[in-house]
## 1
Amino acid sequence: MSMTSSVTALLPELVLLLGAVLCLLLGSWTPRLRQHRVRVVAGLVVLAFLGTAVLGLVRPSTTAFSATFTVDEATGLLRVVVGAALLVLLLLAGDEIAGHPRESEVYVLLLLGADGVLLVGGTTDLAVLVVGFLLASIPLYGLIGLSTTAAAPEAALKTYLIGALSGIVLMLGASVLFGLAGSTAYADLDAGIGDAPVAAGAAGVVLLLVGLLFKAGAVPAHFWVPDAVQGSWVTTAAFLTTVPKLGAVLAIARLLEALPRESVWPTLVAVLAAVSMTVGNLAALTQDDVRRLLGWSTISQVGYLLAVVAAFPGSELARPTLLLFLAAYAVTNLGCFAVLAAAPDRTRIDHWRGTARRRPGLVAALGVALLGLVGTPPTAVFVAKVLTIAVTWDAGLAWLAVLVAANTVLSLAYYLRWLAACISAPREQAEADVADPPGRLTSARLAYGCAVGAVALGLAAGPVLALAG
């Protein structure tokens, strides 16, 4: 493939990269009190990115730069979902971070982090995977560290330490697989691992998976997620619980497709999925801080996504189901954090007592988002979870399908506890202590929009599945 064709195939990613550089330069020459200009430019960059991404959807599948990056329907939908998420995040940042001395840097880090996620999700080469992992991780550390909360330094340090260790493990796994296959291309892993000693192949794959599980926020590399969600800006929390997971889960799916089909890797992913969803739900049951609750909730949601990935070798419907689930999870999870951004001082469940009387629209949006994460019709996650149970059963993983259903019922307990507080009678002292700050109308409108989007995507699940192949 020619250099021109490769550049054309990766045009959306290049738009984000050049846009991040432009925002960095513009921020350096813009007075601190006028950093909103950088946000406007970042928004225009994301719109241009979305335009090129949509154009890429109508083109046939291809590869770029010696088949190290694949542009197919999965990459195309990932681009669209990430682009839409970036627009939501930029609007949230305008409500929450406007006027901060490092406002422009936040926009640059969001664009660079998203670009790294796209590389991770679209690559079919171990070397590019390592580069994408680093590009997706370093901006994440910066976003958490820039947050103004008292817990931000500890959260950033914990995320960095676990991320650095996971990156080393991922690079070690890539090195082992390169040594066995004699190539960094995914296409050569099947033969390379099949001819290699079992222990060596297992070590390489497991090490690679551990690194990707950090980006996904899944067990066993999940300990940083609740602290990072609690200790950072809502904008940052929304980013780290949504965008990196999309690319990481898709990367795990691509890796699983490249491994020998008769191997035990689908079973390993299924076990990781079961543990992640169960640990996340059980931990969320005990949380009173709503951010930590959502942090543990996202860990459980990754478990459901990995359950679909485990079904890849055994079900043809698994791939479109995963792509639908990624889009459904993104819009629903962003809706939860948009609600938090609209009421930032309500950090504990008890603070939400009686909120339905004062802000019925916001509580309605929260209800749609939380019940959407459970999988309540007609939301998009409902369709995705029904299909998840179907594809895992079809792939011979009946026990995993049962666990998906059981964990879905278990998650109702903590989501309903939050909603019950919203509609209960307020305590006078609590009502006096917690007041919603003015000027968060954009976040509230985003919450309404995400709620509508979660329902609309559920109603339009058929066309989305057809687009996903």
## 2
Amino acid sequence: MSNTQTIGPAAVHRLLHRDTVCSVFSGTVAAAPTDLLCVTVAHERVDGSRREVFLEWAAKLTGLAAHPHLSPCTAVGLTENGRPYLAVGTARRTLADLLGEQGPMPPGQVRALGVALSDAVAVYHRAGLIHGAIQPSHILVGTGHHLQLTAYDVTAPVLAAPPPPSPYTAPEHLDAAVAGEVAASPAGDVYALATVLYAALGGRLPWVRHAREDAADPLLRAAPVPHVPGVDPELTDFIGAALSPDPRRRPTAAALRQQLTRLPLAGPPSYGRRPDTVAAGLLPRRGLRPVTVAVSTELAPYRPGRERVGLRPRLRSIATATAGVALTGALLGGAALATYAATNPESTGSVCTDPAALAGWIGEQLDEGTIVDSWCAGDGDYVVATVDYQGGSGGDGDGGHERLAWRIEGENLVAVGDCDDPSLPASVLEFIGCI
């Protein structure tokens, strides 16, 4: 008998991500077994008004006109036991990977990218949908560098989760992001798209610095967007207008497409040498929400397992539901995940005392890099490691070391790095450079 599980028409193969709201799997459908799918399924059943809200959103998504730069939605609906799910096409590489490997794009390619994506976003908006998390890691790179916007679950009311503030968060949504609430708007999508284009040019934004809190500083967001050396100023002027701190002064996605289409790029470039790398702060290695998966998950509610089977972490799209409205109340509630350590208190200690097992556990969290050294910290509640990146990451190309830390949650490792987290012990704060 086959052990293959199905969610709607999709056969799911491997758990990529799990949080308190949903699980994300890789999958395929019988009609196209070689096409990769990303399948998101909620943990909890929905009924009543939550069911109707989700189905209304699903109807809008399935009613979208086909667009070459929107990832196809293969299926969306409710499982037999009433759990919302969404299956969309995916790819192994993203624009973040491309920019990190190859550096900034030529201005003509960035203009073409802007025309394609703004047209796709305009189609999305005309259907009454809001994306809410446009960024390079949510833009797929297919055959021939064909680009498609994906991560539609970020606007599904019962699949959403609050995102932390990032350079792609529009200024009007910063307060909600800092407060752990969910907000999105069409103007916010335009802002995020303009940030993607500016990053692709190699631009350096005033609010993307070394300090993590700069991305949420409203005063920095009011600073003018500088021209990019070696790029026609008219192109950066159009992008800068879409990055206006006042959402009322930004063009719509459709208007931005028209502006970029008519732009000849015939003027002299701005003075100076063009950057040869994309700003590292615009290409975070772990994206907005790093996650850890330790067990293969059934479609039933979470139950702690007895054996840890490591899988590499993947990113799940995060957050938002309707225009300009915080939707925390619309999110699927639910208890925190049960922890393996609660029923197996000796399991963590055995890993901490076995260097090979600890290194293997940490290695599952890394997409790249070599572990130089690692150990348990904070009385065994945390794991820390020094990782060597040969040739660099995030587009800087310089290589070097990075100090990383994870909180042990049962049999999972959850990445930490917020210096303002009061729960972090002093030893971990000192190790990751907070103090």
## 3
Amino acid sequence: MRGADTHVEGADPDVLAAVDALAGRWGGRAAETERERRLPDATVAELLDAGLLQLAAPPGFGGPGHGWPTLVEAARRAARACPSTGWVVGVVGGHAALAGRLPRAAAETVFAAGPRQVFATASAAADGRLTRVPGGFEVAGRWRFCSAADHADWFLLNVHCGDPADRLLVPLAAGQVRVEDGWDVSGMAGTGSRDIRVDGVFVPEALTGSLSHCFAGRQPSDGGPSPSPYYLDEVPFLPYVNSCVIGPVLGCAEGAFTACLARFSRDAGGSRPLEQPPVRDGLTESAAELACARHLYESVCARLHAAGTARRALSPEDAAAIGRDRAYLARLCVRSVHRLVQLAGTAAHFTGDPLARHWRDLQMMAAHRDLNWARSAEAYAAAAFTAEDAGGPGGAGPVHGGAEPVHGGAGGRGQAT
């Protein structure tokens, strides 16, 4: 999309160039990706060979040590060509940072083969359970929405042992789970977010980690100043992992706009759609909404990167504002693309049409827990406003303290991860 590639502070230009060089291949496979309901093996090999699934892997385990903007901007650019590929780059690729936040023995185990691996997460337990046994836990049952399950080397299970508030992160190797084909959906089909089943696997306690500890802020392992720009193993992780979705969402909407513009640029039987005032007006309004979405995207990237480089935890107000902005970004993208589909008419609803594919995928992305407007608005209002500061009807004033950040993503439930 013309003018869309503004500079994102902290994003590595070499990584972005690698994504741009491969994006045409992923776009060419987008129909196959949707039809097969998984990324093609060739795409996964390209992602691994280019280091695009290792962007968030910690340097201590062989990772490149990139900051958060590199991950999310790479996902955005990939999603323009193939939204499912963008999702896997940003959301699944972000799980490498989470794997590095496991207790040392567990992290050494999962990274024993190096960072060139796929880490899937399983947060939505259908009937999955964890039972304490001597020396550790027995894991059994089924989990849902495990993106890139067909290609995963490790699954990071989010599960509790009796008390839902006391959750553990439990890594299982791919050979310890069965991938089941339950992913028959109308949008984001290519993410392969399948069910997994575990048949009574023993996991030593030393290889599990408290979820709250894995997400908490921490000091550098040597107790001194951080030796590298990598901060994803030190800052409180939840605002970062919950915000990975904004790259794929924005990129998907931008890809839809490009597909729509290409449609209208063609001379359809002499009709010259781009010369028709309703088409020009609709395209202009959708472009304006995407421009606003990009401003929110850049603001979220800048705030998270600034807090990360400073090793600073976000205040409750900042975390709630970021949740608000990522949810509103998704709203703007959905409105923009909905208008494009209306402009294109019936022709935009054929299964193989690129605009139709991006529209289906965007609606599925926008249903993610971390983009829920009602939940995000409630958290923001609790952090920003109080009755005594509001000054009566129509008034509002800031407060200090209050809301917890919105939970979801790898730490949430009921969503593709």
## 4
Amino acid sequence: MNTQRLLTALALTGGLAFGSFWYWAGEHWSVYATTAAATDRTPLYYRDPDGVPLWSAGPKKNDGGRDYLPVYDDDKAILDPIKPKQQVDTSRKVMYYRNPMGLPDTSPVPKKDSMGMDYVAVYEGDNTDDGSIKLSPGKIQRTGVKSEPAERLPIRVSIKAPGTIQLDERRVSVIAMRAESFVQKVADVTTGTLVKAGQPLMEIYSSAVASAAADYLATITSDTVGRVERYRNGSRQRLTNLAVPEQVISEIDKSHVAPVTVRWSSPRDGIVLERNAIEGMRANPGDVLFRIADISAVWALVDVAERDLGSIEVGQPVSIRARSFSGRTFSGKISVIYPQVNRDTRTARVRIELDNPDFALLPDMYIDADIDTADGAPVLAVPENSVLDTGSRQAVLVDKGEGRFEPRAVKVGRRGGGFIEIRDGLAAGEAVVTSANFLIDAESNLKAALKGFAEATQQPSNGASGYAMGDHK
């Protein structure tokens, strides 16, 4: 204590008399040499007195209350503080010395690099056979290393696929004649008109239908029974085979009048998709006069990538977003997975049934499907950014505590919701690095390289007298 006081007094008196400045650096005294003429010039800037890379345009003090030092244009007024020689811990065994700049160069004895910097001592115990790396608390803080424990939770895997709206094949009806006919009159119905079941569409004259209606009328007005009864049933079936609406046949039963023209009605509720009937036209057997579809329920046909087929199954819920309605979502379920893969796009067609009560979804409308494949069962998972993936190898950095990190190979599974399933290589509760893991991985690779160079220095080369890599400048 008396020695420190004496040195302090000498520093103060010496600084006043000779223009030198002494300061205590924790374990030694350092000196800045100045000249009396320095006070007569204007400094270029001021720098931290402790050698920290901090500068100021004007005078100021650092966190320790010490004044920043002036720097002049000739860089001679202020000299760098005398740096103490690297202190070697004599209580520990030095294995080798590594390059201070991180280059793959080691030496079995102390040395300096080309810039005059001392090689850094590596002690026994700093290297472990498990490949772990140890970082100082300062480096951990500077690099922003963060860790989170592995935990069991359900992973929500969402598969997105584009598609279009299509008609339900079971809800489409076609009106076509089964015998040569003539269109006598067409109702005020056009393409796009919403019609109800039983609504009149047109009136048709057909000689075949008129003849069958007359035969049927003759059988129902006859008083003869037996064979006539069987003939009556055959006449009615003949009208049915000609696709005469049931409503027309019932009117014949009630009125006992055979109509000359037959009124054709809509077989279902729906929208007229096609209208080919024109008044006065001749319709041959098989000609489609009307095509009507019920769009209160539609299909969404989406194309799922081949790699995702193993994650989907019939019955999974699907959310549908139409590009025409950005803020609206339609819900449905997978009903069919078509058993064929498109050889050009490598996708498979998936059918999703949707309710469409307000007819918002129209045929051929573009949609985007979001298939939720979560099964609800919790699995061991870690944050997605904690896995180092090279394509053929996946690994995580396990935080062992006290600044030590262990690279560990893992087997991964499903990904989703920002998490990755870990199927092997990790236990629940083990902490993994989620931030700055690439920096630690680079440090680990560097350490492995340095260890290899260190082992090489202990083996003399063939035909040489103890020469090893790292022993030269």
